[in-house]
């Protein structure tokens, strides 16, 4: 018994639950038959090994030049997933797909495999099955690179029917069932490869600059290094409350204190906050610290990291997004000051001395609600409202309010601001960089103020970290530091949303 052709599993016109259940029952019966036929030898529907000698990509590379109705004279053994098939009287056609999406046609003919083997193919092979085939590499009469099958076996029996690969999967199916997305969609496979290439490029650039990669704790007794609400858990072994880290910053700085002058980490952060097109509660983060650097030198490094990643993914500083838009990451990126650009946008000079009453008036005029007691927060919200949307090219926004950046060194020549930048691309923040605060006395004062805010109910305020302060007291050299979301880097390189750049995003 053969199954009906699989159809789309998406919400608009897919198989019903009853139809899926019926197909699953048919496939389970085939599984039982394969296992029974194998007997004590084992395998059957799921053999431990099949005798592959090559891969589909390798065959295409070696024999893709064959002209129509031409034979190579070479016999190979390869495996792939059946993604299309057509059975006729004496000849069956199947398209086998490799993990990278490359495909080859398998031709199972009565003359080559015999009546019994052909009948078993028709009865047992379904869409989605992994099959092994051996035979000569040929080009069909229509010029399709093919394997003229002389022997075959099931490599893994699929119990669930595949979605219709001719139709587009809806976004919900793509995110919740990423394995189907990877089978069905070239862009999904490309996203995985692009991400791997970008991360490898980051590590290569860091290696070329003499940086050392380390790993810091994800379970922490005190959260810090960023203003964010943490996830809280409990350790039975230590009988204590622990936090999933919101940033690796405070540990990486301890490494700099210890003499690892150039250090970086690529790993996971967790923030118990909202999820949208640019935010995920769990995300991959890069942080790096360079002794005897500052926010200018770390901006130079960040630009190089991103431009090198663009070359690794696209072969050019001009990247092409999934929708066909070209985005230029090349050249020297603009650097603008937050207060100066805000003043220019609203036609009024705004400085760190601008009264809170005036900032509230400006926020009300713009229809902005700022549920925060800090003047700097008003400045940042006003800047985002009036300036951010006008940034087209990658831009470093420099010199932030001091009261919103408790881990940053005060500006060397401008009062009321700190040496911090945010890098904006595509209208969102991609990275941030600092001249790091290394004075333990001032750092304690900043932490005390943060603790006051936390006591007043600010869930994102930092806690006073005595162990980190003690490390600073042993002396940390002048340092530049940066952080960048890996998921957002892929957004900048591909034009995709954050749920597309994360292989398995968190969904309800």
UniProtKB/TrEMBL annotation:
It catalyses: tRNA(Lys) + L-lysine + ATP = L-lysyl-tRNA(Lys) + AMP + diphosphate. Keywords: Aminoacyl-tRNA synthetase, ATP-binding, Cytoplasm, Ligase, Magnesium, Metal-binding, Nucleotide-binding, Protein biosynthesis. Mg(2+) 1 binds at residues 422, 429. It is found in: Cytoplasm. One of its GO terms (biological process) is lysyl-tRNA aminoacylation. Binds 3 Mg(2+) ions per subunit. Residues 200-505 form the Aminoacyl-transfer RNA synthetases class-II family profile domain. Its cofactor is Mg(2+). Coiled coil: none annotated. Gene3D superfamilies: Bira Bifunctional Protein, Domain 2 (3.30.930.10), Nucleic acid-binding proteins (2.40.50.140). One of its GO terms (cellular component) is cytosol. It is an enzyme of class 6 (ligase). Mg(2+) 2 binds at residue 429. Belongs to the class-II aminoacyl-tRNA synthetase family. NCBIfam families: lysS_bact, PRK00484.1. This is Lysine--tRNA ligase. The lineage of its organism: Bacteria, Bacillati, Actinomycetota, Actinomycetes, Micrococcales. The gene is lysS.
């Amino acid at each position: 018994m053969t199954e009906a052709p699989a159809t789309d599993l998406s919400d608009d016109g897919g198989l019903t639950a009853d139809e899926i259940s019926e197909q699953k029952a048919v496939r389970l019966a085939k599984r039982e038959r394969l296992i029974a036929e194998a007997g004590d030898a084992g395998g059957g529907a799921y053999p431990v090994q099949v005798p592959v000698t090559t891969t589909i990509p390798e065959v295409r590379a070696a024999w893709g030049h064959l002209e129509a109705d031409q034979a190579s004279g070479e016999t190979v053994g390869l495996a792939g997933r059946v993604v299309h098939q057509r059975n006729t009287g004496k000849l069956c056609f199947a398209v086998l797909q490799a993990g990278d999406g490359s495909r080859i046609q398998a031709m199972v003919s009565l003359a080559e495999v015999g009546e019994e083997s052909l009948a078993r193919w028709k009865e047992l092979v379904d869409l989605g099955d992994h099959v092994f085939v051996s035979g000569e590499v040929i080009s069909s009469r229509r010029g399709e690179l093919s394997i003229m099958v002389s022997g075959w076996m099931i490599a893994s029996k699929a119990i669930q029917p595949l979605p219709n690969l001719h139709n587009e999967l809806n976004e919900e199916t793509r995110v919740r069932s990423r394995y189907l997305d990877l089978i069905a969609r070239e862009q999904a496979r490309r996203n995985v490869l692009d991400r791997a290439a970008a991360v490898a490029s980051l590590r290569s650039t860091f290696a070329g600059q003499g940086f050392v990669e380390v790993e810091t704790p994800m379970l922490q007794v005190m959260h810090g290094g960023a203003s964010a609400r943490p996830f809280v858990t409990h350790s039975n072994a230590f009988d204590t409350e622990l936090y999933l880290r919101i940033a690796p910053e405070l540990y990486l700085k301890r490494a700099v204190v210890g003499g690892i002058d150039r250090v970086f980490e690529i790993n996971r952060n967790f923030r118990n906050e909202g999820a949208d097109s640019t935010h995920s509660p769990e995300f991959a983060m890069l942080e790096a610290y360079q002794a005897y650097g500052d926010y200018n030198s770390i901006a130079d490094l960040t630009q190089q990291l991103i431009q090198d990643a663009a070359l690794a993914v696209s072969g050019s500083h001009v990247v092409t997004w999934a929708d066909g838009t070209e985005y230029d990451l090349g050249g020297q990126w603009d650097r603008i000051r937050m207060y100066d650009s805000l003043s220019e946008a609203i036609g009024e000079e705004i400085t760190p001395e601008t009264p809170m009453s005036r900032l509230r008036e400006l926020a009300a005029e713009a229809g902005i609600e700022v549920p925060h007691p800090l003047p700097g927060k008003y400045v940042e919200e006003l800047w985002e409202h009036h300036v951010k949307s006008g940034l087209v090219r990658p831009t470093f926004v420099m010199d932030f309010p001091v009261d919103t950046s408790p881990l940053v060194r005060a500006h060397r020549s401008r009062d009321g601001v700190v040496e911090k930048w945010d890098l904006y691309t595509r209208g969102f923040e991609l990275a941030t960089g600092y001249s790091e605060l290394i004075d333990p006395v001032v750092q304690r004062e900043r932490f005390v103020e943060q603790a006051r805010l936390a006591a007043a109910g600010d869930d994102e305020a930092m806690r006073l970290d005595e162990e980190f302060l003690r490390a600073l007291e042993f002396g940390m050299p002048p340092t530049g530091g940066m952080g960048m979301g890996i998921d957002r880097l892929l957004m900048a390189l591909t034009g995709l949303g954050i749920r597309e750049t994360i292989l398995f995003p968190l969904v309800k």
